[in-house]
Amino acid sequence: MLTMSAIMTVGLGVLASPASAQDSGLTFYSGTFTTKVANVPAPTGECTALPATADSHVGWSGFRDVTFYQTPDCSGPATGVGTLRTYPAGRWTSFRAF
Predict the structure, then answer these.
(1) Chain CA centroid to CA 11, Å
(2) In the Cβ-directed half-sphere of 94, how many Cα atoms lie within 13 Å?
(3) How many angstroms separate the CA atoms of 81 and 55, rounded?
(4) pLDDT of amino acid 64
(5) pLDDT tens, position by position, for the chain (98 residues)?
(6) DSSP string, 30-93
(7) Distance CA 3, CA 60 (A)
(8) pTM exceeding the 0.90 threshold for the entire prediction
(9) Would you say the C-alpha torsion 64, 65, 66, 71 has a positive or negative sign?
(10) What is the pLDDT of residue 34?
(11) Alpha-carbon gap, residue 87 to 20, rounded angstroms
(12) Distant-in-sequence, close-in-space partners of 32: CB < 8 Å, separation ≥ 6
């Protein structure tokens, strides 16, 4: 429970940042919202490589869902993960954002 509370506090701290400091689009982090590893300002729905160290993401604006895949070409089973999520780094290798 303490771990979940810490994760939520860090995540909400990111969300509560001043608007001028926030990214747009979709931002991936490592260290559970600690270090930005990639930003996709305008996701297109195309298959894109997921940063290997990513373990969390925030969808800031402009789309409804992120779908992860275990293959590099977005084939096989798809896992819808939403726009605010934590996960084990390396679990998925590619994504589509809609």
Answers:
(1) 12
(2) 16
(3) 12
(4) 84
(5) 444 444 444 454 545 554 456 778 999 999 999 999 999 998 889 999 999 999 999 998 877 899 999 999 999 999 999 999 999 999 999 999 98
(6) ETTTTEEEEEESS--S--EEPPTT--EEEE-SS-S-EEEESSTTS-S-EEE--SEEE--TTS--
(7) 24
(8) no
(9) negative
(10) 97
(11) 27
(12) 7, 10, 11, 55, 56, 86
Tell me how far apart the alpha carbons of residues 46 and 19 are, in angstroms, rounded to a whole number.
27
Q: Which residue has the tokens 């979940």?
A: 4
| Residue found under tokens 């290798």 | 93
Both tokens assigned to 32: 């559970």
